[in-house]
Amino acid sequence: MKIEKRWVISFILISLVAISGLFWKPTEALAETGFNAADTIVTADVAWLLTSSCLVLLMTPGLSFFYGGMVGKKNVISTMLQSFICLGVVTLLWVVVGFSLAFGSSIGFTLNGTHYGIIGNPLDFAFFDQVGVLPHSQMASTIPFILFALFQMKFAVITPAIITGSFAERVRFISYLLFICLFTLLIYTPLCHMVWHPNGLLGSYFGVKDFAGGTVVHMSAGFAALAGVLVLGKRKNSEHIPTNIPFVLLGTGMLWFGWFGFNAGSALAANSTAALAFATTTVASAAAMLTWIFFDRLHGRKVSALGACIGAVVGLVAITPAAGFITIPQSIFFGFIAAIASNKMLYWKKLKAIDDTLDVFACHGVGGIMGMVLTAIFAQGENASLLYGGWSVFLHHMIALVLVAAFTFFGAILLYKITNSIIPLRVSEESELIGLDLSQHDEKL
């Protein structure tokens, strides 16, 4: 059996990562390097963040069922694996250098005496150096730093997994692995740093409010998905019947359940903000689910389990950036308006024409945009939003929205083209015809 060179190179890379960890000399985390003493740890916060990390991890298998049930029978396994494999690929990337790029000391520029970061120093926390039991004084000061790193890792894992629904049924697996590595390192980590690091450009200069990842996760995945559709092109047969609606229902339930960790966990403490985020999360999703099915009926479409599931997820996406910043009645409106916007976009003929297989941009991209806009209007607390007289905050959010959209969309196009120049992205016509389950993995339902 002839083994392709690309797989040999991949195995050599993972071997080097595994062996290099044995020779890495860890640096001890000290108070003078930005860490608090161990007695500042709050055990209730630790318990909640451990639970939240488990919940967010569950979302990626949930997403695999959600997507897997929507595709044709010949591509169920391949589609589910594309989500599931992120648990392996992104986890190792995050430990080796990803976390450091996202939350290391800021590399950027100084303006009026203030430093604004674009990306983190890749050497600060490489191989989780200094990432141990002591809390970081600026980032999650009541839980061990390693728990904060693991919680954030789950966000990094699911982001490229979301993208897979857009080019399902036509992407080469090894090419996809290369792309998610490039995406995580070159798009996700700088965006994460700019929004969530204390010195990040979008967070500290533009004042962007993103409680749990509407911008960092959903907008980045949505625009990268749109870019992927345009680069890879349409499927040879873009018509298919979802294989397993119960899979979609199961996946939606797992996502909804995991989203409590995603949003409420982003309070980074067991406190009232976490409770509020927990409540707004489920209320917005409920409102969006009902809005979606009623809106479908008004347009002559039957009430469907698939529509109810998509609506629920859109509500979860839209509430994510605002979960801890708004009231529960406002969260109903978030779900309502986001469901209408995403529904209209999903059935827009021009978007249908480019063949976004599982409507990732219509759900995550548009849902993320709606969430960011609505957050800039309704969010309470520090840096008042538009509703409370914060015109400058709203304007900064709109500028940031354009910048994030351009960065993720054009950045992803570049990464797809780089990937394609190394390993072709699309499978052959024959492989697409027989299905990716058999042609890529030699497996079938």
Automatic annotation (TrEMBL):
GO terms for cellular component: plasma membrane. InterPro entries: Ammonium/urea_transptr, Ammonium_transpt, Ammonium_transpt_CS, NH4_transpt_AmtB-like_dom. The keyword Transport applies. It is a multi-pass membrane protein. Pfam families: Ammonium_transp (PF00909). Keywords: Ammonia transport, Membrane, Transmembrane, Transmembrane helix, Transport. One of its GO terms (molecular function) is ammonium channel activity. Residues 47-444 form the Ammonium transporter AmtB-like domain. The chain crosses the membrane at residues 7-26, 46-68, 80-103, 143-164, 176-196, 216-233, 245-262, 274-294, 306-326, 332-348, 360-381, 393-416. It is found in: Cell membrane; Membrane. This is Ammonium transporter. It comes from Flavobacterium orientale.
